[in-house]
Amino acid sequence: MAASPERTRKPTKKPAEVMSRDELQAAYEQMLLIRRFEEKAGQLYGMGLIAGFCHLYIGQEAVVIGMQHCLEPGDEVITSYRDHGHMLACGMDPKGVMAELTGRATGYSKGKGGSMHMFSKEKGFFGGHGIVGAQVSLGTGIAFSNWYRGNDRVCLTYYGEGASNQGQVYESYNLAALWKLPVVYIIENNRYAMGTSIERATASHDLSHNGEPWGMPSLAVDGMDVLAVKAAGQQAVAHCRAGKGPFLLEMKTYRYRGHSMSDPAKYRTREEVQKMRAEHDCLDGARKKLEEMGVSEAELKKIDDSVKTRVQEAAEFAQSSPEPDPAELYTDVLAEG
Amino acid sequence: MTDILMPALSPTMTEGKLAKWLKKVGDPVKAGDVLAEIETDKATMEVEAVDEGTLAEIVVPEGTEGVPVNAVIARLSGGAETGKPRETAPPPQAPAMEAPRAAAPPQPKGAHATVQEPVDKDWGPTKTMTVREALREAMVAEMRADKDVFLMGEEVAQYQGAYKVSQGMLDEFGPKRVIDTPITEHGFTGLAVGAAFNGLKPILEFMTFNFAMQAIDQIINSAAKTRYMSGGQMGAQIVFRGPNGAAARVAAQHSQCYASWYAHCPGLKVVAPWSGADAKGLLRAAIRDPNPVIFLENEILYGHSFEVPAAEDFILPLGKARVERAGTDVTIIAFSIMVDVALKAAEALAEQGVSAEVINLRTLRPLDVETIVNSVKKTSRVVSVEEGWPYAGIGSEIIATVIEHCFDWLDAPPARVTGVDVPMPYAANLEKLALPQPGWVVDAVKKFF
Hints:
- The complex is a heterodimer of chains A (337) and B (449).
- Chain A is 42% helix and 9% strand.
- Chain A is of the alpha/beta class and 337 residues long.
- Chain A has one domain: Rossmann fold.
- Chain A contains 11 helices and 7 strands.
- With 449 residues, chain B is α/β, with parallel strands linked by helices.
- Chain B has 3 domains: 2-77, CATH 2.40.50.100; 126-309, 3-Layer(aba) Sandwich (Rossmann fold), CATH 3.40.50; 322-446, Rossmann fold, CATH 3.40.50.
- In chain B, helix 2 links the parallel strand 10 and strand 11 (178-180).
- Chain B is elongated and about 95 Å long.
- Chain B starts with a strand and ends with a helix.
- In chain B, 49% of the residues are buried.
- The interface between A and B is large, with 84 and 83 residues.
């Protein structure tokens, strides 16, 4: 297998074929929810209601929503600390996510995890991990549990191009390929690992090649186009579900905001950011496509309003919920047997 | 009208300079547009609009220094405002909580032993077996009982175990449940923790705990902390086991005790068996425990034989120490192979008329404070014995515990016997000088009298 990697294979489906009007409309609404949620989180951070590290997903929404549209109930998702978008994509309640950001008892981790550490086993979301690259081995292990049980579940394992330099990522590639584990590795290449551009960090400038030594099939994908993401994702997920082992997707994407909230953004120009926003924004692209499909201005406005209302409700919930009871300091350290 | 507030642009910012306005009154504003530049003590940063509308008023002119976070800096009108004006809530106050007093910190729930068997229950007839066989019997029994339990590690399957602990297990359970890994500790440890997050119950064998250093991030940051970080939603039922401490003549990188490293961390249980019964009973309990358990074995003990209860359901509780020898004049506290050293010292002391009580800790976290304190209240003297280094070692914790709980019963300052505070040397004579000997314990005890 190692002799004939499938990296150079074209996607089997054309992007335009992968979503109906209704599905694209739903995907647009989900991406918009992430965008507005993150804008609100940034705003609450500015007001001092959210503290610590807070890594916004603005700009990258098409990646997680396109991939989520490839999954079935029971599949699993794991990612890094830039995780709000993934949680909303998995169907977690924006109120619970925002309340965790404000450190309240009603948050997904009862206020004990914060932005980087949230989980929902019910929704198949396994975190939310703060150590760069650690989630790649963990996700490989979730895929291992599927292999062990002999089911056809697939684990989507997300990480940035910065994490892709970590040693355990390559250890994971090897294990997954060796044992044919059902894991889709998704590199969200937003070009900057904190302030270090990919050119300054990675000798492998085409990350979609990175699975080649292990014979891992892979695709490089326009991560700003939700249809292209879904088309590639379907191919990757089908490969894993059929028991053929891991698949690597490099999503070429971009974050509009800083690495975290305290990022002075001196490593790139404002023009570069504005150009990406103006020419490649996933929401603009989906909106244009929907208009071509005949979705009216009024329908889009209705979506916008509904999303804004949900985000506003989440923000109000997150501000009005109580802080955790002091007794919670001592709970959940160990499970009782 | 929507207020635009001076944002906090870093976790520590309280005020900043409004350096420059990039929009002027009357300009249309879309979400994401840069409104202004703000200088903090660290950097100049841009403020982006969150809402859309028209910039109606600039309240704080550019060049103003010391603008407090949350002050109104401008007002936005029109656009697609959604309902209520933005609240100007003050930053949340730190919870008004007192740090727990040192004397009796509340223990996290679940800190107690999960197997409720009494520590000295009579299990009936015994049979003679090595520690190696006892460990194997424990794994085999638990794997027969629970199909979610599996063994993974380097050379555990086809090679039959680097130290033959897993000999024969591949034949019984097959390659899906007894899994050879490549030499990739960081990767396979993360993989096993991920599998545990999804409900499997891995037994992860490290060829030695020295190699677990490659993987300690996954053990601490992923396995130990996730239950807490998830508010109790998700944890890892996993055993990390393998030989710990000095073997013989393998020098510094292969001869280190990690007991205090792991015992330091909340979210872990740490077990260090000495006898065959310890090995079997405690490993069964560790595999059934819903928490991550560090199980520190000892290579030299693998070949030692002990009497082990033959009962099918034999198991020991975690978190309970055992008094291996009763005495009245001094308490010697040890774990793992140092229990041998302590017992030999007690024998020598008996010949000199000193009656020593020897406690085998069995579990290092949670520590069996009750057994230690009851013994020290009886003997009024205590010495701890460990192979590891003295600084911030298990002995330090034992002595602090004794001083906190029974200072008034002590007739002498507690003493420590530890490995010498150097990396382990190779030469036979130097290695012997680096590791606690029974004579060191005898000397430490005799200073009490």
